[in-house]
UniProtKB/TrEMBL annotation:
GO molecular function, one term: tRNA (guanine(37)-N1)-methyltransferase activity
UniProt name for this protein: tRNA (guanine-N(1)-)-methyltransferase
Residues annotated for S-adenosyl-L-methionine binding in this entry: G114, I134, G135, D136, Y137, I138, L139
GO biological process: one example: tRNA N1-guanine methylation
Subcellular location(s) of the protein: Cytoplasm
Known role: Specifically methylates guanosine-37 in various tRNAs.
Name of the gene encoding the protein in the UniProt record: trmD
Length: 249
């Protein structure tokens, strides 16, 4: 079971996502456990103060270290070993490889969600915190980033998705983007499903899908091809497509 904790000022931001779709089913089937901790409950004063003005001046507020240390230490004391993650644009880039590692992590994954101008630096100095980024942009807080990471990891746990083959064919699972998908009707507003998918020839369909995945990756994320495991025939096919793409650019 993958076990997570989300430390947040705003539990209402994460609750809806945790009770829908894959995350809901994963928890119900005991593949995933998620605890949500309201940071204000761990404040040390009667006003439940969790932030204060920054030393040295400047705009905004900074989250205080005391409540964060208190909740993390409580989780560690009651639940055992933890791996502490802080969503941050300064962190290591989150990717499918990291999602896979999270899905297999035996320690509890504790996500500290920042807000305002940030978190007192002593949190990172005093605890083994890993900063992880989901992209080069700024969000209001760390809650959405934490949910992204939990969702990406949870779906990799065996049994969470109904069909294991779904994982194998998704984008990034094989260092390639996914091939295009179609369903009924056969024709919609003059656009038809490719005939090969209606042929019933499963070998030809597999070949077409692999070529489409390669072509999709070549056009959108050619950098991924360096890590893709390709046969010699597939490499030659990609080289021919490269020449075609260049001739039309």
């Amino acid at each position: 079971m993958m076990k997570c904790d989300i430390i947040t000022l705003f539990p209402g931001m994460v609750a809806p996502a945790l009770h829908e779709s894959i995350l809901k089913r994963a928890q119900e089937r005991r593949f995933l456990e998620i605890g949500v901790h309201r940071l204000r409950d761990y404040a040390t004063d009667k006003h439940q103060t969790t932030d204060d003005v920054p030393y040295g001046g400047g705009p905004g507020m900074v989250l205080k270290p005391e409540p964060i240390f208190a909740v993390v230490e409580k989780i560690h004391r009651e639940q055992g070993e933890t791996r502490i993650i802080m969503p941050s644009p300064q962190g290591k880039r989150f990717d499918q490889k990291m999602a896979s590692a999270f899905s297999k992590e035996e320690r509890r994954l504790v996500f500290i969600c920042g807000h305002y101008e940030g978190i007192d630096a002593r949190v990172k100095e005093g605890m083994p915190v890993e900063e992880v980024s989901i992209g080069d942009y700024i969000l209001t807080g760390g809650e959405l980033a934490a949910l992204v990471m939990i969702d990406a990891a949870a779906r990799l746990i065996p049994g969470v998705l109904g069909e294991p083959a779904s994982l194998e064919e998704e984008s990034f699972a094989s260092s390639l983007l996914e091939y295009p998908q179609y369903t009924r009707p056969v024709e919609f507003r003059g656009l038809r499903v490719p005939d090969i998918l209606l042929s019933g020839n499963h070998k030809s369909i597999r070949t077409w899908r692999k070529q489409q995945a390669l072509l999709n990756t070549l056009r959108k994320r050619p950098d991924l091809l360096a890590d893709a495991s390709l046969t010699e025939d597939e490499k030659e096919w990609v080289d021919r497509q490269c020449d075609t793409v260049k001739s039309h650019s």
